[in-house]
Amino acid sequence: MKKDFLYNEIAGNIADKIKTGVLKEGERLPSVRKLSKEHGISVNTAKRVFLELEAQSLVQSKPQSGYFISPRKYLKLPLPEASQPVPIANNSEPDELMSVYATMGRSDLTLFSIGVPSGNLLPLAKLKKEIVLATRAMKEGGTEYEPLQGNVKLRRMVAARSLAWEGNLKESDLITTNGCMNALALCMMALTKPGDTIALESPCYPGILQLALSLRLKVLEIATHPLTGIDIEALKQLLPKINVCLLVPNFNTPLGYCMPDESKKEIVALLADHHIPLIEDDLYGDLHFGPRRPKCCKSFDKDGYVLWCGSVSKTLAPGYRVGWVAPGRYKEQILKLKLIHVLSSPSVINEAVGNFLLTGRYENHLRYLRKTLQENYRKYVDAIAAYFPEGTKVSRPQGGLALWIELPDSIDTRELYNYALKKQISISPGRIFTLQDQFHNCMRLCIGLPWTDQLKLKLKQLGNLAKMIGRRS
Amino acid sequence: MKKDFLYNEIAGNIADKIKTGVLKEGERLPSVRKLSKEHGISVNTAKRVFLELEAQSLVQSKPQSGYFISPRKYLKLPLPEASQPVPIANNSEPDELMSVYATMGRSDLTLFSIGVPSGNLLPLAKLKKEIVLATRAMKEGGTEYEPLQGNVKLRRMVAARSLAWEGNLKESDLITTNGCMNALALCMMALTKPGDTIALESPCYPGILQLALSLRLKVLEIATHPLTGIDIEALKQLLPKINVCLLVPNFNTPLGYCMPDESKKEIVALLADHHIPLIEDDLYGDLHFGPRRPKCCKSFDKDGYVLWCGSVSKTLAPGYRVGWVAPGRYKEQILKLKLIHVLSSPSVINEAVGNFLLTGRYENHLRYLRKTLQENYRKYVDAIAAYFPEGTKVSRPQGGLALWIELPDSIDTRELYNYALKKQISISPGRIFTLQDQFHNCMRLCIGLPWTDQLKLKLKQLGNLAKMIGRRS
Known about the structure:
Two copies of one chain form a homodimer. Chain A folds into three domains: 2-71, Arc Repressor Mutant, subunit A; 75-85 and 92-120 and 363-472, Aspartate Aminotransferase, domain 1; 142-362, 3-Layer(aba) Sandwich (Aspartate Aminotransferase, domain 2). Helix content of chain A is 41%, strand content 13%. Chain A has helices at 2-19, 32-39, 43-55, 72-76, 97-101, 124-137, 152-161, 179-191, 206-214, 232-238, 261-273, 331-341, 347-359, 361-387, 413-422, 453-472, and strands spanning 59-62, 66-69, 110-111, 175-177, 197-201, 218-222, 224-225, 229-230, 244-247, 278-281, 306-311, 323-326, 393-394, 402-406, 425-426, 428-429, 442-446. In chain A, the strands form five sheets. Chain A has a seven-stranded mixed β-sheet with strand order 4-12-11-10-9-5-6, with helices on one face. The interface between A and B is large, with 61 and 62 residues.
């Protein structure tokens, strides 16, 4: 669309001016009305320009005053390097995983390591009410099995929401699962046999790596760029070796990138040409900092090769274990595996979430959560700029819950993990995001914790520990 | 123990007299006091004699009148044949499974096919109350992840209840799962690699067969006796071929047998000698018709080779998906797989079930449920004796939810399944309980549906359809 093109171009021009220092820190931008007149565009298009710049954290809005250029200290932090994994399928295993996850549920720690929003950011009272109402309303109180395909209300609402990203799903296209990991597991089991090769983004969420290993797959880690995601050329080269591909294209953890629409379209066509199924993990898609919910690979799926997976675990209730998959041409296989491995999900919980989505409260909540996460992101980056060692690089997430930090080469984040734990801080060391010899000086921090002075202090402590390790080595 | 020996011997003598017709249908047995005097045993031991006979459905108690010999028509129905599977590991698949399970949740059908208690037999109001209370009481309303090992209250209560069968578990021995099938899946994944051979009872619950196939295992079906379970001699012969064994020793579905304590002890020792892990599926253990909860293989597990699995799916709430495993020496492997495949269970549900067990309401409910199931069993058998074809054989479950019916050879239960479905009746044809060419004339009926005239009519219709098929062939 012409309008899309225009607002992207204007936003790009302003972004360049900010990055090159033509526009200075703290400077006020022209008003929406003025921008609209200057470029001969509609007020709505002008608004979008600002929202886009805000999504990139280049500008900040102040109530009743307009938009201002974000502080320089944020922009000074460079991006992490593009990953350069070895293009050889691998199944050797990092050994830190269990210790990191053993901290799950420990209330004495500051859990930068767990990639979910804190309970303080969730609509707990409303959710509790929905559970109570669903429990009372259901004839057998949720003690009965669900239909195999899963709760109808929930599927209907997930289908309805897919219109926003041009997924155009119907409720019959969807199968509910026990959270998104369960959806991914069913997909991997349905599509692979032991010894097969799965292509994943590098760095990759450790749970996905471990899942692949537990199914005795070989893992091919594909290079990524920290802003645009998987390197399509690298993927192309390796296609003959690949049996199945799994991507987290929207606000990937740990890097937070959003793959451009054109890349999504290209990858879907490429994989379909080679009859390679694509498992799309879209559990962060609703957590966009920008004005619009991004499209998915599934949006471009003409031939049913894309298995689109999602959940409310990152937006509403990690502990509910409510997820789903739209498995395209693989529906029968997924249903059969669900029957064998899952049978049914807890029906009260699924009914309650279905009702919650139905009321529109979900959209209100998402607006609040997205705003908070983006504000958190800026505050984290400010703290990192202030407290972390010289030479620290930070990802520029366009949504989601994760910040990827690349410390100077000399700092091993496994060592940092151990020191931090003694100060009641838990981080995810970079080494668990790969099966290769990479990311020793990297870590992921979750930005889903509510911002407090205490949290800032923890980031300061973490920075000091990193500096201490850097000095010593 | 001497007392045990005495009551078993006396009960055995009376049972023989009933079976051989020395004691006649409807005849009244001596009172507890009289029996106690006659044999010089305590009143309690005498009571046990009657409870044991009642468990075998040989006698019935009438309030204020004492015990009477059960009607002959019940006793006339012979037992099904002992199974004779081919002793060769197999992985060919029956194709009826999906259609049977597609009927799950269909309220227009009489679901003899689904092996769970009907909602009418469950303490729905009390469970609903527990869910509401837990939702309100939990700080984050259950939106948070549980600790990896699972809800502490639930584990504590399952451990406490294990004293009754001399399991003597501690809460730290247990890991919660999403229902019992999930526990079995984690165990199989932890203990096997593709191509390994798993030994199972024949006939076997189809979900277990399918689970083994989905993990690319070869299945070795072992012969069973309809009253005592697996044929230990047959198992012994095949030990060198076996990597892992899975048994449902207590009130097995479909046959309903309870493996004698001595057999459990022998099998545990035998498998431990050969370092073969035993996955014990004990989800029916609390549904004993007799006076005492049977022991488990886990009761005799000295070396940690037994992975004891259970749930409340067959006793309290199928749809809650609350289960657990005490994995013995395999705890680390199971925890790791739980992290990858499950991560967390819905915490509200697990907390609510933990609380329910804590109140002692569970024991009250179990007493009611057991009594109802045993009454149902008798009524089913009466109806089958009245309406089913000449030559029909019926299992004599000592607990649980299943009745296994062997029709005359000429009647194919796949055909019966199709005819029955047209009359809104769903059954489980025998062919889905094996990967071999067996059980074409068998079927499983669930006795967990509330007894009504309508249900009796459905059994009559089923019997008539079977007769019709028998006449035609």
